Amino acid sequence: MATSCLLPCIAVLFLAACASASRQLPLGPNHGDVPNDFSHVCDPSRFRQQGLDMEEFAYCDKSLSYQVRAKDLVDRLTLDEKVQQMGNSAKGVSRIGLPKYEWWSEALHGVSNVGPGTHFDNSVPGATIFPTVILTAASFNQSLWKNIGQVVSTEARAMYNVGNAGLTFWSPNVNVVRDPRWGRVTETAGEDPFVVGTYATNYVRGLQDVEGAKDPLDPNSRPLKVSSCCKHYTAYDVDAWQGVDRYHFNALVSEQDMLETFNRPFEMCVKDGDVSSVMCSYNRVNGIPTCADPNLLKGTIRGEWDFHGYIVSDCDSIEVMVDGHKWLDDKGDDASAQTLKAGLDLDCGNFYPDNLKSAVLKGKVKEAEIDRSLNYLYVVLMRLGFFDEIQQYKSVGKGDVCTKQHIALASQAAREGIVLLKNEGGALPLSSTKKLAVIGPHANVTWSMLGNYAGIPCRFVSPLDGLTTFGQVLSVVDHVIYQQGCVNAKCDNDSMIFQAMKAAEDADATILFVGTDLSIEAESLDRTNLYLPGYQTQLINQVAASSKGPVILVIMSAGGVDIQFAKDNEKIRSILWAGWPGEEGGLAIADVIFGGYNPGGKLPITWYKNEYVDQLPMTSMPLRPVDDYPGRTYKFYDGPTVYPFGYGISYTNFTYELTSSPHSLLFNLEPRQHCYPQNHTNKDQGSQCPAIIIEHSECTYFIDVEVTVHNVGTRDGNEVVMVYSAPPPGIDGAPIKQLIGFQRVNVAAGQNVKVKFSFNVCDSFNIIDAAAYNLLPSGAHKILVADKSATLEVSFDY
Ligand SMILES: *[C@@H]1O[C@H](CO)[C@@H](O)[C@H](O)[C@H]1NC(C)=O
Ligand SMILES: *[C@@H]1O[C@H](CO)[C@@H](O)[C@H](O)[C@H]1NC(C)=O
Ligand SMILES: *[C@@H]1O[C@H](CO)[C@@H](O)[C@H](O)[C@H]1NC(C)=O
Ligand SMILES: *[C@@H]1O[C@H](CO)[C@@H](O)[C@H](O)[C@H]1NC(C)=O
Ligand SMILES: *[C@@H]1O[C@H](CO)[C@@H](O)[C@H](O)[C@H]1NC(C)=O
């Protein structure tokens, strides 16, 4: 059955049904916006009100460049005034017309009220909350990632205009998921640095780019819709695990892992996303707190990557250096001087305002370093239109928050992310069901769908709401019975399991909603095992054993869970992973369950078996196998998994054809280019010229790959085409394979779609060796797509 017409019909009916429910917030048009307490700094009427003559202030002269204007502004300030502008709550200087500004706002997956810069009130009571990032990542749809950023920045700009938000948002989180126990998996785009970097680039562009504006030659004059921030730089992914926390943790990281894994998303965020802020993390890297490391900040971010923006600390990072790491036994002024010299421009906290003046007076740091940082900060605010209005956002107001289109995109994001993990005998989509049992601690959740760094949503659609309303609208379900099964996600006892079994006994189908929430995996809370919490496993097994009809298991979690038992249980016919799907989650889940949408998401992380985490401590940073520890992520671990990275099936079936050209590449080495010796496990495989260093070569070769995806089933479907490269066999420490490109496509039943990729040889077939050289090895590389592969033979003539 082709179902493409079903979705719009259901969505319209559903929105209508919801609009009448009493707990909906009004989604009405824009009326009576309250203006901000000022519209923009260089508004002449502001200066007149303050009895100042704006003509005298060159920093308001639009004919000058932002850098010149920022310098004029900074040069007017006394040392006292300067340091008061260097904490997240900048105090302003009224004598020259400079207002206060709160730098800290957040917008990880919707405008959030986590930072003090943003709040909800009667004027704007809520904003659109999208799925948490790990689910949105599972869509592998770059245009969706960017669209979400665009919607979030429109809502942010609207809230700024009515005085409810700032313009600087400290999102996204671009740390790589190195270990499955990490509590902040939900905030990220998963374990692959290329995917995380691609997500970051799209989301940042969605947030920052002013639609229709051309990129100027001077990046310091590029206008910003809102300012985005890639965080937490770097090698940050231990929160709190068995007595080790981020405020004390020293990550021991090789240069190889730094380049290849930890810094790659930040590099893409800066170079490809042109982000205007980077946040340094709490942890130390190889002994040095990241916010105090001049190599990491001034050297890599500003120097190598040519960053244009400001570097901010994670909140109270300088205090953490002093009290947590006790670094160099520094007190406030030494610590502040160190971080300023290293390149930290803004302190989320009070250490800069409280200590920098004395640091300068004692000669620990030059005032010119303060000026430099303030210049970066004011140029960003100028690019944002804080000083002169950006015309095209002037009329954006509260009527642009929680619009029908925005809410529809939130449910679309959840639909696109949901991953079908098992579907024996085509149990899903669910057809006509008289009595449907809906069971589990997640069946009627609301806030748990939002994860962390959320705000107040426009509304909620719980799974139970979604299933009930959809089932009735479609007339496929006569009767829904609900049983919670456990009192909450922790599921500390089995007291509610018996009633849940009863409910399943005479239902024609049973849907079980289980998983985790922020009480299990969160910031400052890493997991110690990968099992479902408490009695959830028992709940599932017992309900499955007693159920009359097929059982469908829906996992709502951020990180992977070891559900091998459910995969092996024949009564459990289907398994879906629905992440933490945002305010519209229940709508998306119901749409997938009843077949209005054919799921096409793929797991952005490996789902390990629980044994895995007993084999290595969370604090061991290497990605490659070391000291009897297994490797990490699909690139370096090929042991058993519950589900591998990239896994996800569909209600239809796809087959692939793959062509690539050319099949061989001969590089003529330049006179100054040398062959680079490379260790092979098998000496015979080492060729005469094993590799070249990429830095020394032009890298103008491209490999074109065309993938034809056939939908050989009877339903329209969505498929993510994932292309990997695998290096020639036998190179010490090389990854098993690495993702080099992906694209999500919609393929109608019986049809095919051709997907084209063009891969730069140096970007897509390189390896980083133990000495942190970026190399192109000679020999037979593989290109892999699903079950198909092609070979690329690279050789060097010298
Ligand atoms: C990708 O997302 C966009 C929404 O931004 C959607 O319109 C499009 O259909 C999606 N593509 C696929 C193949 O699912
Ligand atoms: C579902 O949760 C909502 C509040 O979150 C509550 O009002 C409602 O009664 C619950 N539904 C059932 C059937 O328990
Ligand atoms: C089960 O847990 C709930 C919530 O923690 C508690 O209220 C209840 O008393 C417990 N029941 C038993 C039998 O321990
Ligand atoms: C997909 O292919 C498998 C194996 O050939 C088959 O068992 C299954 O019925 C097919 N499913 C669909 C939806 O076409
Ligand atoms: C090859 O391996 C040896 C011993 O493990 C090591 O000392 C050397 O640096 C390696 N050479 C390269 C090019 O990686």
Task: Give a written overview of the molecule.
The protein is 28% helix and 18% strand. By secondary structure, the protein is an alpha/beta fold. Among the domains are: 8-26 and 415-643, Rossmann fold; 654-797, Immunoglobulins (Immunoglobulin-like). The strands form 9 sheets. The protein has a 6-stranded mixed beta sheet with strand order 11-16-15-14-12-13, sandwiched between helices. A 5-stranded mixed beta sheet has the order 20-29-28-23-24, with no helix packed on it. The protein is globular, with a radius of gyration of 27 Å. Residues 1-36 have low confidence and may be disordered. One 2-acetamido-2-deoxy-beta-D-glucopyranose binds next to loops.
Write the layout of secondary structure elements.
Elements: H1 6-19, H2 44-49, H3 66-75, H4 79-83, E1 89-90, E2 101-102, H5 133-137, H6 142-161, H7 193-208, E3 230-233, E4 240-241, E5 244-245, E6 250-251, H8 255-262, H9 264-271, E7 277-280, E8 284-285, E9 288-289, H10 295-304, E10 310-313, H11 317-324, H12 332-342, H13 351-361, H14 367-383, H15 404-417, E11 419-423, E12 433-439, H16 463-473, E13 477-483, H17 497-505, E14 509-515, H18 536-546, E15 551-556, H19 564-568, E16 572-577, H20 585-593, E17 607-608, H21 610-614, H22 633-636, E18 641-643, E19 654-661, E20 664-668, E21 691-693, E22 702-711, E23 717-726, E24 738-747, E25 752-760, H23 761-764, E26 767-768, E27 774-777, E28 779-785, E29 788-797
Parallel strand pairs: 3-7, 6-8, 7-10, 12-13, 12-14, 14-15, 15-16, 20-29
Antiparallel strand pairs: 1-2, 4-5, 8-9, 11-16, 17-18, 19-22, 21-27, 22-25, 23-24, 23-28, 26-27, 28-29
Helix pairs in contact: 3-14, 6-7, 6-15, 7-9, 11-12, 12-13, 15-20, 16-20, 17-18
This protein binds 2-acetamido-2-deoxy-beta-D-glucopyranose (5 copies).
The site of one 2-acetamido-2-deoxy-beta-D-glucopyranose (NAG) has 5 residues, from loops.
